Amino acid sequence: MIRIKDVLKEQNGSYILEKLLKKDKAWLFLNDNLEVPKEYFEIKRKIDSGYPIEYIFNEVYFYGDKFYIKEGVLIPRDDTEVVVERAIQVISEKCKKKCKVIDCCTGSGVIAIEIAKHTNAKVLATDISELALEVARKNAKLHNADIEFKKCDLFDESVDLLVANPPYVENFWQKPNEYEPDEAFFGGDDGLDIVRKIIKEALKFEIKHLILEIGYNQKKPLSEFLDNFNCKYEFFKDLGGRIRGVEILFC
Q: Cα–Cα distance between 51 and 158 in angstroms, integer?
């Protein structure tokens, strides 16, 4: 018989048991001689085969909050939190009046929701995926966030600030799992196809301020592209010290 104490040190062991037994970690340690339910091993096998644990329990934590997630929608990563922090800082410091913000390629809606929760901005979230918008709307409702959602390819109007975590992974990279959508990851041979398209569309709609998530190795090619325009730009890093985003201000 395998007991709770035998699996508590396994990766995700206590989390899986907390969810299955609907008990907290303290209860698990106080009752660690109890038998592990068979469902635990079924879930562990699924995770070990590459299925994301976030999809199993339909939840993910981002920026200190819990969000709903389901298969087919990009799972938010901690690295994206620096993009949210940058956006909140810009809105708080530079927007004297109530500004309008687009969260382009919103996915599960976490960026839009955190901006809405921490600023007075009017937030519009867009995505081309109806499934992503379904999840984002559910998350907005869970967090009582007042957000307008629109299904479209990128965006189709002018705002004060555009924020995006677009697909920026090079086509030759292997995804972390096969269950998240390709269209949420891949951005062409150098990963910057959609990033460049967003920048060009922003110029078309006269959006002067952008905050975009990018890959750690894309500073040089993106700098070369941005140097073709009359703009100022600054790259910023994630908590691991790697390039994670760029803030662009068109003159």
A: 39
Confidence of residue 66 (pLDDT cuts 50, 70, 90): very high
Span 30-39, mean pLDDT? 92
Task: Please write the tens of the pLDDT for every residue from 151-181.
Answer: 999 999 999 999 999 999 999 999 999 999 9
Sign of CA dihedral 79, 140, 13, 18: positive
Residues 138/79, Cβ–Cβ less than 8 Å: no
Phi, psi of 44 (to 5 degrees): -60, -40
Cα distance between residue 223 and residue 235, in whole Å: 9
Per-residue pLDDT tens digits for 82-138? 999 999 999 988 776 789 999 999 999 999 999 999 999 999 999 999 999 999 999
Contact call for residues 177 and 47 (beta carbons, < 8 A): no
> Bridge-partner residues for 102, per DSSP?
124, 162
Rounded Cα distance, 133 and 122, in Å: 18
Q: Where are the beta strands (DSSP E) in the chain?
A: 59-62, 65-68, 100-104, 122-127, 147-151, 161-164, 209-213, 231-237, 243-250
Structure tokens at 89: 């800082």
- What the block records as the tokens of 155 is 């965006």
> Can you list the domains of the chain with their CATH numbers?
4-49 (no CATH), 76-250 (3.40.50.150)
